[in-house]
Structure formats: structure tokens, C-alpha cells
């Protein structure tokens, strides 16, 4: 049995066409079902639904053989024990610094001010500001980062930006683009050896589908 860990939402939705390219069809809709283990049309393949931040952990310890997770989540996790063969080019967005539209970020940085930065992505934020030589106090949050500058909890946030609509709706502006983000396939290293015959065709089908998407777009 091959177990693939996915998180609900954009990653699940955008992984479906890649699975279809490998001849795998998920038989239940996670938005309609409360089930956490979803069967597929292939008796030897199942999907488990986990929180996005738990995907690397499931794959690292063999609770799943394969998983799909954002580059952001992988960097925060550390990626140890995971084989990362493919950038799936899905769930694309960027990791950015944002502030209130009346906060003068450039001059705060120029003056060497110590910035309060709220984020779920503390490893990425720490590394980014250290590379710029900006001193920061990091405040760990688990969601709704946009609220932090509006309430005075922080001067800035580090968060994912896709359309930019969430920032705009909360009078925030993007002041730095830290990195582009997309989702990766991660594979348990032992499973890759022991279940090679089942896993290799899935990797090949994903890889071909990504290539033909790149050609057509
Ligand atoms: C992400 C991110 C922003 C939003 C950005 O949240 O944290 O809040 O999307 O998207 P936009 O630029 O298109 O408005 P997500 O909905 O993934 O949920 P989360 O808060 O649980 O991370």
C-alpha cells in the first residue's frame, strides 16, 4: 500500500491533476466527507488528509510514503529525512514582508531600528532579516498575521502572499519579497527503496505532467 499525505484546500485541489496523470483518482471529496483516509481507484494507493505543517512529519516517520507540501513548510520543518525529488510547480505564491501602509519601513531599516515582526514562519524570517543585518524581535503566531500590525502587536509581518487581496483588505503593503514558494513532492527515504516499484511510476508520471504543463504555459 502506498500512502500519500495531502492537506485540504489548494494543495489537494492542485495535486489532483498530477494524480490523474499517474492514473490515480481520489474517490471521495474531502470538502464533503469527514473521513481522513480517502480511497483511490487504485487499490494499492490511498490518500491521508493532514494539516499542511504535519505533512513533512508524516512522511519523515513513515506515516505516509509520499506527501505534497509547500517550500515554506519544508524550510520551517528543516526537511531532514525527506527525499525531495520534484518541484510540482503548484500552489504558487510568495513569502513577503508587509507593514501598515502608514509605516515607513525603508527609513526604519535605514535607521537601524529594532523591528517587531509577527509570523508563523520564524525560521524564514530570522534568516531573511539576519542576512539584511536588521535586528528583529520575532513574535510567533499561528494565523491571522495581518492583524498584528493593525493592533500594534508588531511593526511588520512575514506571510504568504498570493493575489495580495488579504493585505489590501487590511491596509497593509508588501515591502519585501523574500522568496517564491511552490509545493514539492516529498518521499520517505526508506519507502523509496522498499516500495520502489510502486513509487517510481508515480514520480515519473508527475515529472512528465509538470514538464508538459511547463511547455503548454
Ligand atoms: C494565506 C496567507 C494570507 C493569504 C494570502 O492564508 O496567510 O493570509 O493566504 O492570500 P492572498 O494574497 O491571495 O489574499 P491561507 O488562506 O493559506 O490560510 P492560513 O492563514 O491558515 O495560512
Secondary structure class reads alpha/beta
What is the residue-averaged pLDDT? 97
- Which segments are poorly predicted (pLDDT under 50) over 5 or more consecutive residues? none
Largest sheet: 6 strands, mixed
SSE order:
EHEEHEHEEHEHEHEHEEHH
| CATH topology heading of the largest domain | D-Maltodextrin-Binding Protein, domain 2
Quote the distance from N terminus to C terminus.
34 Å
Strand order of the largest sheet: 2-3-1-4-11-5
Task: Name the ligand types.
Answer: 1-O-pyrophosphono-5-O-phosphono-alpha-D-ribofuranose
Could you name the CATH class of the largest domain? Alpha Beta
Shape: elongated
Task: Let me know the CATH homologous superfamily of the largest domain.
Answer: Periplasmic binding protein-like II
Overall CATH architecture of the largest domain: 3-Layer(aba) Sandwich
Summarize the structure.
With about 220 residues, the chain is an alpha/beta fold. The strands form two sheets. The protein has a six-stranded mixed β-sheet with strand order 2-3-1-4-11-5. It has a five-stranded mixed β-sheet with strand order 8-7-9-6-10. It is elongated, with a radius of gyration of 19 Å.
Can you tell me about this structure?
The structure is a single chain. The protein is α/β, with parallel strands linked by helices. The protein folds into two domains: 2-91 and 182-216, 3-Layer(aba) Sandwich (D-Maltodextrin-Binding Protein, domain 2); 93-180, D-Maltodextrin-Binding Protein, domain 2 (3-Layer(aba) Sandwich), CATH 3.40.190.10. It has nine helices and eleven strands. The protein has helices at residues 10-21, 55-60, 71-77, 105-110, 122-132, 147-151, 165-169, 189-194, 196-216; strands at 2-6, 37-39, 45-49, 66-70, 82-87, 93-100, 115-119, 136-140, 156-161, 172-181, 183-188. Strands 2-3-1-4-11-5 form a six-stranded mixed β-sheet. A five-stranded mixed β-sheet has the order 8-7-9-6-10. A hairpin with a 5-residue loop joins β2 (37-39) and β3. The protein is elongated. The relative contact order is 0.20. The chain binds 1-O-pyrophosphono-5-O-phosphono-alpha-D-ribofuranose (PRP).
Amino acid at each position: 500500500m502506498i500512502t500519500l499525505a495531502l492537506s485540504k484546500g489548494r494543495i489537494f485541489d492542485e495535486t489532483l491533476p498530477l494524480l490523474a496523470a499517474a492514473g490515480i483518482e481520489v474517490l471521495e471529496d474531502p470538502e464533503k466527507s469527514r473521513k481522513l483516509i480517502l480511497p483511490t481507484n487504485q487499490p494499492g494507493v490511498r490518500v491521508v488528509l493532514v494539516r499542511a505543517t504535519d505533512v513533512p512529519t508524516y512522511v519523515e516517520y513513515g506515516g505516509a510514503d509520499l506527501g505534497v507540501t509547500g517550500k515554506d513548510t519544508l524550510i520551517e520543518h528543516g526537511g531532514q529525512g525527506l527525499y525531495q525529488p520534484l518541484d510540482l510547480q503548484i500552489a504558487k505564491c510568495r513569502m513577503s514582508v508587509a507593514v501598515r501602509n502608514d509605516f515607513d519601513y525603508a527609513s526604519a531599516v535605514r535607521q537601524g531600528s529594532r523591528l517587531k515582526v509577527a509570523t508563523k514562519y520564524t525560521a524564514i524570517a530570522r534568516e531573511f532579516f539576519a542576512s539584511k543585518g536588521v535586528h528583529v524581535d520575532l513574535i510567533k503566531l499561528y494565523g491571522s498575521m495581518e492583524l498584528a500590525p493593525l493592533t500594534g502587536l508588531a511593526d511588520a509581518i512575514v506571510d504568504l502572499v498570493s493575489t495580495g487581496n488579504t493585505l489590501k483588505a487590511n491596509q497593509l503593503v508588501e515591502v519585501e519579497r523574500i522568496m517564491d514558494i511552490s509545493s514539492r513532492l516529498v518521499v520517505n527515504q526508506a519507502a523509496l527503496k522498499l516500495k520502489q516499484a510502486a513509487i517510481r511510476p508515480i514520480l515519473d508520471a508527475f515529472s512528465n505532467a509538470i514538464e508538459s504543463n511547463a511547455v503548454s504555459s
